[in-house]
Structure formats: structure tokens, C-alpha cells
Amino acid sequence: MNIPNDPAILLSFLNTQLRDFYPSLEEFCKANDISRQEIEEKLSSIGYVYDETQNRFRCT
Predict the structure, then answer these.
(1) SS3 55
(2) Residue 58 near residue 51 (C-beta atoms within 8 A)
(3) 59 and 17 in contact (C-beta within 8 Å)?
């Protein structure tokens, strides 16, 4: 799967995927063979972190 490169677009894309299709970021990454660390680093660069209890990225 190709994911958006722009962090702001990636944020929207991931939160939609997590809300609609995946129970966790880990499951999304496994299903799409994507590095969780890379995603978290990219989104932290714009001030967002993954919230496991809400299964979404939120502003810090």
C-alpha cells in the first residue's frame, strides 16, 4: 500500500484507516507491511502521537 508522504495528509489518512478498518496501529502496520516507527516519527514531526486507548493520532 502506498501511504501519503505529507505528514498532514498522512494524519488524516491513518486516522480514517484506524477508525474504519483496524483495531490498532500495530495491526495496520502488519497488514500493510509498513514500519510503525517511521509513521510515528513522521507524525511526531507535526506534533501528533498515537493514542492506543482511542486508536487514533492526537495532538500532543
Answers:
(1) coil
(2) yes
(3) no
Q: Give the pLDDT confidence score for residue 4 in this predicted structure.
A: 96
35 grid coordinates: 514500519
Report if pTM > 0.85: yes
Residue that is written with C-alpha cell 501528533 in the block: 48
Per the document, the length of the chain is 60
What is the structure's pLDDT at 1? Answer: 79
CA 37, distance to chain mean position in Å, is 10
What SS3 state is found at 53?
A: coil
**DSSP code of 35?**
-
Query: In the chain, which ranges are continuous DSSP H helix?
Result: 7-20, 25-32, 36-44
* Neighbour count for residue 52 (Cβ, 10 Å): 10
